UniProtKB/TrEMBL annotation:
It comes from the Bacteria. This is DUF732 domain-containing protein. Residues 42-110 form the DUF732 domain. It comes from Mycobacterium gastri. It holds the Pfam family DUF732. Keywords: Signal. Residues 1-38 form the signal peptide.
Amino acid sequence: MATCRVRSRRRVRSLLIGLVLAVALLRLAVVATPTAQADRVDDAFLNAVKSKGINFPSPQAAIVAGHQVCNELDLGRQKPDVATDVTNSSNLDGYRAGYFVGVSIAAYCPRHHTST
């Protein structure tokens, strides 16, 4: 009977180890998925910005600026006012500043997209 308990404990232990590994792999998959999606969103955003000749010192600086547009809109600022701020704080003309605001909204805060 002692032999059965030893084998049974080993089997339970093996099952528990397998379960822990399965849960760890699932968590890793869940964590990796948003990162992959964020990378695709960032890549699309950077490609759109670059396509209009809007240059930043680094890709990260462009992404931070895009998120800042959303932060300003979250505070209740209006899109034209944010675009004016972009124009005044950069070398972008009104068209490119407005485009940057629009692309930022599409990429990072579609909740601010309104069809007018």
